[in-house]
Amino acid sequence: MTAILHTGDPERGALWQQIVTRELPDIDFRCWPDAGDPAEITGLIAWTLDAELVASLTNLEILFSIGAGVDQLDLSLLPPHVRVVRMIETGITNTMAEYVAMAALALHRDLPSYVDSQRSGMWAPRDVLLTAERTVGVMGLGQLGRAAIRMLAPLGFRVAGWSRSSTDVPGALCFADDAERDEFLAQCDILVCLLPLTDDTRGILDRSLFARMKAGASLINVARGGHLVQDDLIEALDSGQLRYAFLDVAQPEPLPEGHPFYSHPSIMLTPHIAGVTRKETAVHALIDNLRRARTGEPLEGEIDRARGY
Ligand code: NAP
Question: Are 86 and 301 in contact (CB under 8 A)?
Fold first, then answer.
């Protein structure tokens, strides 16, 4: 690798330039817009892609995503030989696991209904269940799904997991693929979506999926807004098929003013802050991958471009 170019947040770029240059002095770390000769750049660090910039990087070898997902990058702009690496780092993993635990506990202990009661001036205790009496189901058993399970299981929840291939995850009863999906959904009191957004998973959180869950179950979507069919969610909440939804992601982001999600009494909305790339820790994941690229070792988080994750 000769030169790499950072795009996006200039503060992060300056910090990473300082640390990467100290750890790997032979790397020429550049920050947009000071790209220098684009033909010298073999690595690009980005959250989204600019078509004109990408076209000028004629010797690009590796694209490093700032985030854990890659669906926000238009990969069709890249020649097929360019490798794409998503961000796997403790900042994202820990904050995501914490958010899922926070939302699951809030749903478990009926926090949204107590907030409603408080606002209406009512003192209204409800039955309290044990975590062992609730099942939290996690869709997607990758880096983040497994991290969420590591946080949920010690809280005492019964945990179920679902992914494409059959995977064993300590602390969870796991189900695989379409054949076992309904069995998985039928036991969830709280469903967490941590799937990547691909052609196969777009719109997966829809009316037919909600109908396969227990009546009165709740949803936590921390993956991508494109997983959710918004009208189907509102219908499921209004009919009582679903009780509450915690949504950290939306389509589009930000949601336009006046969107029904802002005011729906059964929706808790946060502005895509569940799992956050921390520049102080993520730079070390980048440095590790730059070292791996040099020695020809597999890159941590390299995606299969044909599969989309
Ligand atoms: P990952 O490590 O790539 O794991 C993906 C998981 O999803 C794997 O278990 C995979 O199963 C499963 N999967 C993929 N397609 C599937 C399908 N069609 N049917 C069933 N299972 C399927 O991803 P990750 O690092 O855990 O991240 C998950 C997503 O979280 C990211 O893509 C991103 O969209 C989102 N995210 C959100 C935030 C936020 O702040 N809200 C932050 C970071 C990331 P197999 O392994 O069996 O193929």
Answer: yes
Name the more confident of 292 and 167. Answer: 292
- Assess whether the C-beta atom of 282 lies below 6 angstroms from ligand 1: no
Percent of the residues in the chain that have a pLDDT greater than 90, as a whole number: 99
Q: Enter the pTM of the model.
A: 0.96
Ordered alpha helix ranges (H), the chain: 10-23, 51-56, 90-108, 111-119, 143-152, 177-186, 207-211, 230-239, 260-263, 279-295
Per-residue pLDDT at 1 exceeds 70: no
> Cα–Cα distances in Å, from 205 out to 151, 208, 228?
23, 8, 5
Beta carbon of 27 within 6 Å of any ligand 1 atom: no
Q: Which residues contact 192 (CB under 8 A, 6 or more apart)?
A: 100, 103, 104, 136, 137, 138, 139, 145, 148, 220, 222
Q: Could you tell me the residue ranges of all domains in the chain?
A: 3-89+277-295, 91-269
Burial category of 117 from C-beta neighbours within 10 Å (exposed 0-12, middle 13-18, buried 19 and up): middle
Model confidence band, residue 239 (pLDDT cutoffs 50, 70, 90)? very high
| Pocket-testing residue among 70, 93, 164, ligand 1, by greatest number of atoms within 8 A of Cβ | 164
Tell me: pLDDT of 13 over 90.
yes
pLDDT the model gives residue 129: 97
The domain 91-269 belongs to what CATH superfamily? NAD(P)-binding Rossmann-like Domain (3.40.50.720)
Residue 51 sits at the vertex; the CA angle it makes with 300 and 297, to the nearest 5 degrees, is 15
For atom 5 of ligand 1, which residue has the closest CA? 142
Catalytic residues: 224, 272
Give the SS3 label for residue 4. strand
User: Of 3.20.20.70, 3.30.365.10, 3.40.50.720, 3.40.50.2000, which CATH number belongs to 3-89+277-295?
Assistant: 3.40.50.720
